[in-house]
Amino acid sequence: MSADTTAAKTDDVTLYDVDNPAPVIEAPRKRTKKTPKATRGNFEMYGWLFMRLSGIVLVVLVLGHLLIQLVLDGGVSKIGFAFVAGRWASPWWQAWDLVMLWLAMLHGANGLRTIINDYAERDNTRFWLKMLLYTATVFTVLLGTLVIFTFDPNIR
Amino acid sequence: MPAGTLYRGREGMWSWVAHRVTGVLIFFFLFVHVLDTALVRVSPEAYDEVVATYKTPLVALLEYGLVAAILFHALNGLRVVAVDFWSKGARYQKQMLWTVMAVWFVLMVGALYPVLGHAVREVFGS
Question: What is chain B's alpha carbon radius of gyration, rounded to the nearest angstrom?
């Protein structure tokens, strides 16, 4: 670099002047017309934030769910169609289960997406594993939502 | 430790490994659980028949394992939130992990009777 600047001067006379300007070198990160407008976005940051926020809510929802299903009133022995009908008669528990289903599925799907990205090294393997994951996730979320909304205690 | 690895061992790495393993196990159970619950749309008999398997001693033991995985994932998840958002979180990550393990142990002892009690009665009578 210093060699260049000294080379630019010969006998204290500057090589460049008004009639003979030095070439402009743009800063490496400078935005030009060729720079794409949309950059990569913040998807991964929102994913990271979602894991923490949904995680905190899920601690309450899932531990409450376990307490009701496995501990209170005789634990798992009491569970049956009649028990489910009793609980889903209340909009509160319907909403509880619906929010828990969506948050848990999205939290789990995003977690598994991270794990696939980490360990599946071939592009093809990674792509198809994630397609399988997304298909299974959409199917399960929709099925669970349908079941909560269309539950019929008098099915028989 | 092999040369050039990013894995550092100790509390930080092993809690991270356990978080991943328990997370995957819970997620796979969640698929099964939504499917078995969906049987309430088929018939009360179909649902009750499948739920009956949840009441067998062997599956009760698996449920205890599920509770263990969920409790670790929940408590360690709160620790991860603390490490990320609390200014002193990273400094106290080891102490927080041992706190997580202590709370986990207490809750697991507390879950013994409610989750496994009926299975023990079934296997050993009375």
Answer: 19
Total domain count for chain A?
Answer: 1
Instruction: Tell whether A35 is covered by a domain.
Output: no
Element (H, E) at A13: strand A13-14
Tens digit of each residue's pLDDT (9 = 90 or more) over B20-74: 999 999 999 999 999 999 999 999 999 999 999 999 999 999 999 999 999 999 9
Q: Do B43 and A136 touch (CB under 8 A)?
A: no
ipTM score of complex:
0.91
What CATH number is attached to the domain comprising A142? 1.20.1300.10
Question: Which residues contact residue A55 at a Cβ distance below 8 angstroms, ignoring those fewer than 6 apart?
Answer: A107, B74, B77, B78, B80, B81
Residue A19 domain-assigned? Answer: no
Is A16 among the domain residues?
A: no
Residues of A in contact with B37 (CB under 8 A): 84, 144, 147
